[in-house]
Design brief:
Strand content of chain A: 15-25%
Helix content of chain A: 40-55%
Number of domains of chain A: 3
Shape of chain A: elongated
Radius of gyration of chain A: 25 Å
Strand order of the largest sheet of chain A: 2-1-3-4-5-11
CATH architecture of the largest domain in chain A: 3-Layer(aba) Sandwich
Largest interface: A-B, 53 and 52 residues
Oligomer: homodimer
Chain lengths: 340, 340
DNA sequence: CCGATTGATGTTATCGATAACATAGCTTGA
DNA sequence: TCAAGCTATGTTATCGATAACATCAATCGG
């Protein structure tokens, strides 16, 4: 039993395949009566259009490629979800590649995804190899880096400066009288967003002359709650006098908080803890975590809107196109793990 | 500047396009020397094969469609991630659709995804409309339902019985002397997995004669930690004498735990709490949550393996193919929120 | 009342790769 | 020594839709 194709529908209705094609896209100029008959026959025969053939012919894949380290991170997952919903309105689908924070993998995924002829690339802005950057730049399609605001963007950006986030947290703590700060993050040499927050931390500690830079890299990203728990005793051993720990993420901060409570270290009386991401847990735990809130849904929506604008209009030559930057707020949100 | 195609490469090397095609797939029989020259020219010209054309010709899309409520749920995200990694080995990519727990959306997504001619469908086994079931059955490709073990499966299954999970928790609590149990879950009439755990709960409470059935449906899925916090006082007001709450998920259970601690309700002395999913939080909080551990990575891997088996072999007629069931363990894991 | 315009539909060529078959040169073994 | 088989490559047809152009009838305005 051969698969039904457009021509089968056309024959049964008594029109040409082209008319069926037009009836199935909403833009086609087909008489109401004809369209009705066509849709009915489509239903009867259970016809499913072959978008692969359609894409080849129209030279539009209907895909947007998304590169993310993983979607095990709820805020990231939410951005992608929101992006998918936004793009759905114009019939674009998402093709996800998981980089696992490895630039080598990102390269490989990129070459694979590009074979699908995506109409745009959205990439969570962790480190990119020169080759990846070249691939993206030469792909001839819009690129959007999200969740950071890189100094030398490839094309469009929807995000905030992770480095500034790191610095701002230090200033925030300094203003509240904390003096001996430490950073708990991930081992990584490939330029993740966490690494840039760490950089901001280090720079600001140095700028404010807050003494030695204390950075503890516990494990490769993402740091789990339990890894963070394990880190606290080691950090206290290395630097017994620290009065604040800046964590790479909320789960990490929650791990530190749990361990501190287990060890009888008072939070925030003896130790301040700051997280990042405004994960659900940060509002719900006790005391609630001081953190940095990012509107992850908005990142997805803005990215979707930006792409719809760029892909919708008449084909503007890439060379003439203007890259856009959408600033997303990163709001330092004092809660219970820092004193006022 | 036209995009480079296979024939451009072929011309430059001085062979036919077919030889280039063969050189680019590892299976082709091409002399080592020719292949080397071809790969070099491919690199020089920056040729990127067009998989859309390839798929149309070979009638193999290289896609597996995945339908999930959302990936904001880390265990689900992990299953999908593991599935993607498993399928990557054979060059299959994943096409995700987010149903948001709405069967109507699932239907729509299904019709859209089927136009991409996926080679298989993986679906998180929440409720499916009759139309969805028909679409899947008639698609002529393997279907895998995951994260549950439905009574009337569509085709293959990789999962565990959510209903049994609900029942087992009740028995577990009853054995430990708990008598007045309540269930905290989601408002839903479309047959989610959570609803089936609730069903198992209800059946077992009735079977064991544990008195009135206490079910509190707080909000549409997924229940957030804060919604769960808000639920506890209401539940205690409705049923002041309950001694255990079975929660639809770990985040939900964590919310209840937090609120109980805030209200001064002793856990597990006055109130037992059971979660589901073995989320990271359940190990890290204090006391750690009694929960049901699911090996979500394994679900992804097993699904990948199953699909590789089915898609790899010579084309077996769908009618002759045997549906498979892979059982995944759901391990009730006693921790600190229930007494022994 | 007729040329111009509009609306609905048909025809043909094409998108870029690959399946299937064809071929030419080379080896091999009885 | 030659038929049979093998290796490496070429040729042709095809996958299923859609863009672009063509056509034909109905409508309309002066």
């Amino acid at each position: 039993m051969r698969r039904i194709k457009m021509e089968d529908v056309a024959r049964k209705v008594g029109v040409s395949a082209m008319t069926v094609s037009r009836a199935l896209k909403h833009d086609g100029v087909v008489s109401a009566a004809t369209r009705r008959r066509i849709l009915q026959v489509v239903e009867e025969l259970g016809y499913v259009p072959d978008q692969i053939a359609g894409s080849l012919s129209s030279q539009r894949s209907g895909f947007v490629a998304v590169l993310a380290p993983s979607l095990n991170n709820p805020p990231l997952a939410e951005s992608v979800h929101a992006l998918a919903e936004s793009l759905e309105e114009v019939g674009l689908q998402i093709l996800i590649g998981y980089t696992n924070y490895e630039t080598k993998r990102e390269e490989r995924l990129l070459t694979e995804l590009l074979q699908r002829r995506p109409e745009a690339i959205v990439v969570v802005s962790d480190g990119h190899s020169p080759r990846s950057r070249r691939l993206m730049r030469e792909a001839g399609i819009p690129v959007v880096q999200i969740w950071d605001r890189p100094a030398r963007p490839i094309d469009n950006v929807v995000g905030f400066s992770n480095e500034d986030v790191g610095s701002n947290i230090v200033r925030f703590l300094a203003e509240r009288g904390y003096r001996r700060l430490a950073y708990l993050g991930e081992t990584n040499d490939e330029g993740t967003r966490g690494a840039r927050r760490r950089l901001g931390f280090v720079r600001e500690v140095e700028r404010l002359n807050l003494g030695p830079v204390r950075v503890h890299d516990q494990a490769p990203p993402p740091i789990t709650m339990l890894q963070a728990r394990a880190a606290l005793p080691r950090m206290l051993q290395r630097w017994p006098d620290i009065d604040a720990i800046v964590c790479v993420s909320d789960p990490c901060a929650f791990g530190v908080l749990s361990e501190a409570q287990a060890m009888g270290v008072g939070v925030p009386s003896q130790l301040a803890i700051v997280g990042f991401g405004d994960f659900e847990i940060s509002r719900c735990c006790s005391p609630p975590l001081t953190t940095v809130a990012i509107d992850s849904g908005r990142i997805g929506h803005e990215t979707g809107q930006l792409l719809k604008d760029m892909l919708g209009r008449s084909p503007v030559a890439m060379s003439k196109r203007v890259s856009r930057r959408v600033a997303i707020d990163a709001i330092l949100t004092p809660r219970g793990t820092t004193r006022s």
